[in-house]
Amino acid sequence: MTFILAAAASGGSTLDAVLDGTAAVFLVVGGLMSLAAGIGLVRFPDLHSRMHAATKPQVLGLLMLVLAVCIMWRSWVWVAVALLAWGLMILTAPVSAHVVGRAGYRTKHLRRDLLTDDELATAVDRLSREKGVRRELNSD
């Protein structure tokens, strides 16, 4: 509230102050989401948990940051660019997470004690009976 009053007293419009305040909130939220993703990469115990931490909050964090930039620049031209950047992130994050998770499974970089249900093992067992497909994970 004091931010709005200070902007109004200095000759700026109230709408500019509200937009600047909204952009500031979006920047802080986006930064915190990106920070949470970074902390999750360091703190989580295995590849799959880290992969989840890297993709989920990062997408929302990027959305908040590009919205803040669009609000600060106050130009409709940048909204299309920001939505394109966010859309590409939405498209590539699940694909890259799937590829990393599958590679981690194949190279046995996972903690089996953290798995509650190994759905991929059933598919790998079925495919391993076919000629030319190797078993990715030993059934120990």
Q: Which characteristics define this entry?
A:
140 residues; mainly alpha
Explain this structure.
The chain is mainly alpha-helical. It has one domain. It contains 5 helices and no strands. Helix 1 (2-9) packs across helix 2 and helix 2 (14-43) runs antiparallel to helix 3.
Beta strand count: 0
What are the segments in which pLDDT stays under 50 over at least 5 consecutive residues?
A: none
* Total helical segments: 5
Judged by helices, strands and strand pairing, the structural class is mainly alpha
SSE blueprint and pairings:
Blueprint: H1 2-9, H2 14-43, H3 47-73, H4 76-106, H5 119-128
Outline of this structure?
With 140 residues, this protein is an all-alpha fold. The chain is 76% helix and 0% strand.
